Amino acid sequence: MSGYASYDDALDPKYGEPFPVPVTIATAESLKGYGTIVTDFENTKVEITPWPVKGWRKLCPDTGTLGGECSGDFCYKWVGDQCTAVNNAVGGDYVTGRLPTDVSPSKRTHVLVREANYHPDGGQVFFPKNKDPFIALLALPGDDIKMSDFQAFYFDGSFGVQIHADIWHQPVYPINDEAVFLGKQGAVHACVAVDTVDEFGKYLLVPLTKPA
After folding, report:
1. Domain segments of the chain: what residues?
2. Mean of pLDDT values over 6-16
């Protein structure tokens, strides 16, 4: 699962220049294929993927989706040059990124990221409790992921997002010093991860500002 790789040496020059990720404004149109806008957290159902069958016989009706969902606050806080996150829905406690050497904690413009993951069992909902703006780092499905596949989306805080199953993602990145998100996801919580440092020898450089 992502969230467990070390960021201790993220500033080491041995990794060279990080790979710049483009950023776009999150809209219903720009999010097509990645997920859907969420304006009503309570009434949004998590998209649960039917359990895959191994042979040619089909699933029996109303089976394979009974794992349900789990929910809990997703709490974020910038601590010095690191972004920390606690996912109370599944008990996760992560460092999700670190500021580059030329970026000040008082003016965060970019964050270095080395991980992403996807959930084949269902979607995941992030909803800003206090309308805090945020960045979502996403990539379309496929295990042969490339650094150029990643896209950052800027959310102004007026709505949240449900990412589809199989979408590569990180916990979202708050623009403010700290933020709380209402969260829910499939209770099975299957997780497939990529580490760009291990696979490509580089960090992603993710924007933390609204695109011009």
Report:
1. 13-48+70-207
2. 95
Q: Which helix (H) or strand (E) holds 198?
A: helix 196-200
Distance (Å) of CA 99 to CA 60, 79, 80, 84, 185: 49, 11, 9, 12, 28
Tokens of 186: 């499939």
CA–CA dist 150, 165 (Å, integer): 16
Number of residues in the chain: 212
Full-model pTM: 0.94
Tokens describing residue 187: 């209770």
* CATH match for 13-48+70-207 among 2.60.40.10, 2.60.120.480, 3.30.70.20, 2.20.25.10: 2.60.120.480
Q: What is the mean pLDDT of residues 76-103?
A: 90
Q: Is the distance from CB of 99 to CB of 84 less than 8 angstroms?
A: no
151 close to 139: Cβ distance less than 8 angstroms: yes
Determine phi and psi for 14, rounding to 5 degrees: -60, -20
Q: Among all chains, which residue has been given the structure tokens 């496929």?
A: 142
Residue 117: both structure tokens together: 């993951």
CA angle at 20 for the pair 179 and 206, rounded to the nearest 5°: 5
Tokens for 46, please give them. Answer: 């998590």
- The phi-psi region of residue 157 (left if phi > 0; otherwise alpha if psi is between -120 and 50; otherwise beta) is left
